[in-house]
């Protein structure tokens, strides 16, 4: 073997040794602990009422579906346009016949009720503490208004509910609720109770389920102190 051939063989052997170094992987000793990526798991906190606010921070945990809530999970009151109407009619002592002075008021009420055919009508009959047969008198006063709206003005009776309030819910300021109060020469405390209060709403369906503070303020006392009878 000449020198030239020996050099070629030496180079070839060196190349093979280099290739072997690059392709061989040594397994780590079995006594060295392996370190894996650790994923931190967040506890699965439920949202029981489905309002987007987790139960652990939800201060109103039973909000109904499809409502707007704030960061605490409580209802945001959103008022839409509709009908909210109130009428007060005052009666002579021991009478259930509403004075004719209210005929124009009925025309106004009927016009609004016809514009909002789905609005509900709540009629509350009251009596003064010095009137006798309070239950029947309060109910008769509510019924006279209901029957007048139904028989004379064509308002569907199914839209109207009547309540017996007896002498509950004291009216202090008559100047703001009835323009005819003084025209009827009513001045005594008792005359403020001898009345019917009618409320109509396109939003309120049931006085036992008032969801918003706005409606609780308007209807809350009537829902608490008045008895539904028809």
Structure at a glance:
With 230 residues, the protein is an alpha+beta fold.
CATH topology-level name of the largest domain: 60s Ribosomal Protein L30, Chain: A
Radius of gyration from the CA trace?
Answer: 40 Å
Question: N-to-C SSE series?
Answer: HEHEHEHEHE
Q: What is the name of the CATH class of the largest domain?
A: Alpha Beta
- Fourth-tier CATH superfamily name of the largest domain: OmpA-like domain
The outline comes out as elongated
Instruction: Give the helix/strand class.
Output: alpha+beta
Strands side by side in the biggest sheet: 1-4-2-3-5
Separation of termini? 125 Å
Segments where pLDDT lies below 50 for 5+ residues?
1-25
Average pLDDT, rounded to a whole number, is 79
Number of strands: 5
Largest sheet: 5 strands, mixed
How many structural domains?
2
Residues in helix, %: 25-40%
GO molecular function: calcium ion binding
Keywords: Signal
Signal peptide: 1-27
Organism: Psychrobacter pacificensis
């Amino acid at each position: 073997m000449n020198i030239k051939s020996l050099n070629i063989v030496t180079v070839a052997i060196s190349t093979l040794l280099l290739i072997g170094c690059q392709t061989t992987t040594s397994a780590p000793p079995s006594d060295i602990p392996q370190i894996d990526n650790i994923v931190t798991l967040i506890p699965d906190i439920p949202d029981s009422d489905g309002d987007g606010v987790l139960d652990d921070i939800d201060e109103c945990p039973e909000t109904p579906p499809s409502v707007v809530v704030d960061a605490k999970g409580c209802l945001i009151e959103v008022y839409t346009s509709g009908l909210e109407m109130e009428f007060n009619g005052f009666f002579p002592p021991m009478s259930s016949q509403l004075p004719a002075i209210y005929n124009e008021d009925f025309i106004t009420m009927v016009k609004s009720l016809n514009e909002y055919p789905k609005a509900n009508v709540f009629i509350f009959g009251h009596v003064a503490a010095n009137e006798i047969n309070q239950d029947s008198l309060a109910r008769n006063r509510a019924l006279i208004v209901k029957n007048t709206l139904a028989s004379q003005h064509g308002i569907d009776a199914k839209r109207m509910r009547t309540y017996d309030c007896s002498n509950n819910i004291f009216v202090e300021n008559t100047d703001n609720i009835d323009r005819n109060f003084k025209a009827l020469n009513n001045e005594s405390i008792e005359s403020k109770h001898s009345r019917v209060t009618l409320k109509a709403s396109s939003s309120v369906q049931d006085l036992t389920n008032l969801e918003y503070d706005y409606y609780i303020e308007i209807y809350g006392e009537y829902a608490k102190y008045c008895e539904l009878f028809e």
